[in-house]
Each structure stands twice: as C-alpha cells, then as structure tokens.
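Write out this protein's structure.
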Amino acid sequence: MNEISIDMETSRAEFIQKFQDRTKKFALDAIKIYQRLPKTEEARIIGKQFLRSSLSVGANYRAACRARSKAELFAKLSITVEEADEVVYWLEIMIESSIIKKDEPINLFIKEAVEIRSVLAAARKNARP
C-alpha cells in the first residue's frame, strides 16, 4: 500500500512540475507573439493586456501549488482559469480587429490556451473547499 501512495505522490509531483514548465513555455510564447505585434497604439494597449494575462497564468499556477489551504488553492486556481480565458479573449480581439493574422503560431497558441484553461478548470473543480 505504501508503494502505491508513494507512486501517486510522485506522479502528482511530476504532473505539477510538468504543468509549471508548460505554463512557463506558454508565457515565453506569449512574449514572442507580443514582440511581433505592430507598433500601433491599439496593438500596444491590447497587447499589454494579452501579455499580462498570459504571464499571470503561470505565476498564479505556481502560487496555487503553494496554497496553504483548500480554499486558497481554489481561489488561486480560479484566477488561473480567468486569466487563461482572458488570453483567448485578447487574441480574438486582436485577430478580429486585424491587429494580427490568424496564422499557425497563433492557432497553436490559442489551442494551448484552451487546453491549459481546461486542465485548470478541472483542477479547480476537484479543489472545491
């Protein structure tokens, strides 16, 4: 029985580390997208909102991993879900306003944002206080 609980704990720790790495890569990819935005006022304003929400996903996930209570975990995960959803929103705004083109890197980034949002929403559901 102890081996099973150790294996489950190792698997959980591995998942947490891999997801932290994934959200860090997500942040770095967001920076690359931000850097290729046109140098217009609207692109700068919307781009900063996009960048802030993109970077916030990983930062708040790390904070959730260090939560001191189930209520704090739930609250931090709720923030990550909101931020991941906001990332998709800002990308939709930039695409629909023709600030950026919906090319392959953008499509992949949107797909990753939706997947991350789904994982975090499931984690939040399981973390209900």
